[in-house]
Amino acid sequence: MTDDFTPTPALATVTETQRKMLPFVLQLADTSLILAHRLSEWCGHGPILEQDLAMANIALDLLGEARSYYQYAAELEGQGRTEDDLAYLRPAVEYRNPLLVEQPNQDFAHTIVRQFLYDAFHYHLLLQLQQGPDAHLAAIAEKSVKEAAYHIKWSSEWLIRLGDGTDESRRRIEKAIRNLWRFGGELTMPTATEQTLQAAGLVPDYAALQQQINAHVARVFEEATLPVPENVFAQQGGKDGRHSEHLGYLLAELQYMQRTYPGMQW
Amino acid sequence: METLELTQEEQFQARIDADVRIEPKDWMPEAYRKTLIRQISQHAHSELVGMLPEGNWITRAPSLKRKSILLAKVQDEAGHGLYLYSAAETLGTTRDQMLADLHSGKAKYSSIFNYPTLSWADMGCVGWLVDGAAILNQVPLCRTSYGPYARAMVRVCKEESFHQRQGFEIMQTLCEGAPEQKAMAQEALNRWWWPTLMMFGPADADSPNTEQSMKWRIKRFTNDELRQKFVDMMVPQAEFLGLTVPDEKVQWNEARQAYDFGEVNWEEFWNVVKGNGLCNQERLQARVDAWEEGAWVREAALAHAAKRAGRELAKSAA
Amino acid sequence: MTQQEWPLWEVFIRSKQGLDHKHVGSLHAADATMAIQNARDVYTRRLEGVSIWVVESTHVHASNPDDAAAFYEPANDKIYRHPTFYQVPDSIKHM
Questions:
Q1: Which of A242, B194, B251, B302 allows an S-S link to A237, with CB 3.0 to 4.6 Å?
Q2: Which NCBIfam families does this UniProt record tie to the protein (chain C) (predicted)?
Q3: CA distances from B172 to A140, B128, B167, C6 (A)
Q4: Pairwise CB contact (< 8 Å): B302 & C8
């Protein structure tokens, strides 16, 4: 149920190991929030009413997931900041989402390719996280993976429809793939922080994850009669706070109220 | 046994009078069918266009909680539009036809959505006042004479109940907050009060269709009856919030056991109906753009479905 | 632009295990897979279901209301089909 949000229970104590996870949890939170924000921009403007509802559902799932991560991050940080402080009062350079999710919606084809790339990563990551050593994170992952399983189905089917649909849909999806593929690589390129956490066994190994993603992409692209792009230069930097120009505008809107009226309850 | 020969029309009216629901394949007067298509599609269009003024604030909602609630609410409106289009489709029209009528300007939608949403408090007012007015209109429609419409409305009303509450909660939070928040709430109420009263439609004397619609039990209360009910409901709620309704004539009338209130500005009402509201053009344009820009997506899905069906047929034939 | 509309589908939802699927409304979808997903998004936003059926509306055949008298009224006088038709002595239990 999407409009009734149950916050995760408070932690009794935060262990040293858990505290190390803070930057990673924030990265997950920022990623879900920014993608939810982008999807929510479609609300009222989708290609057909039924798909307006579908995109809003995915956005709501991601928003709920983001809140769970932010609440956890706030507890790990232990500075008295809230989920809203973390979401609304950090500048763009402190945001840790990968470049992919901040890319603008453009047309439905771009939205589908962005979603497909992210879902392939997100779903397989959550499968791992739910078995990970951090029980709190595992619990969030366990809930979210059911939602992500639906998301990946939705975006994969649309990718197939648009690839193997009309000449126009094929032209558009190919263009979207050309424009967005360069942002897919960053998802599984570990940052220095991620590498440290991976070495400690706290974050799943991305090489294995990449193989699962590749297998899924190959399967879907074959059905979509699309060639999988090869040797695409991977843009990166978002996870280290070096973003594209799009994020600033997004945050200007997202943070408008909190910045204009500081310190109030809503 | 002696039975009176009733005409089809008389039999139909007799069923209505006995509160028997009319179902899609039943005989119905052509005017009844047309009135219903007009009313249900107008209602569906209102849900669809109604997504825009609030959708406007999803990206600027002031907290993650509010953002989730608002998105869920606007999504519900898409759902409600869909239920209503489905109900109208049982009368022999298509959604494409209804949308074509909306896009060409032939079909109307509720004028309230041609007013702009300028501050966060507008999200409170839309939920509290606009949805409050909508609920008053909609609850009696759960017993309307046409079965599919009544069933769609039962579903809508069940889901709407959270909409008004979330609006009131936004207003209450603002009114209990900082002075600038309270001022934001009052300013929004000032702008939304009168347009909300207009939502019930023209005064009974100027509403020629009301009588026939009441006879067919498509409508169960007159415009003025509902407007009065709304004022009686809302004035105490505004008082509870510590807000002032922008109408000096609002006063409790002991004899009538109801609030007296001022005259709606009918010139403004007809102006907005005729397309001269601040947002008429951009609301309609937003819908037309969404529809036209989505055409290739809808075509592709059909083309793919045909290809897939063809392949499966070939496979089963082999 | 002339364009063919996505077909209309009737949606049936089982609200919980053990109950029948019940008609809840309709929607548009290009194919059956999409119809089921759309039904999930449109009609189960509040935990309304555990199972979904979709049927393309053109495949539903309905009885004609003009036949109502011939179809249903003959059942009216067959009250012996209902258990309340029979008188059972008070002293007889479990019947």
A1: A242
A2: PA_CoA_Oxy2 (TIGR02157)
A3: 32, 10, 9, 44
A4: no
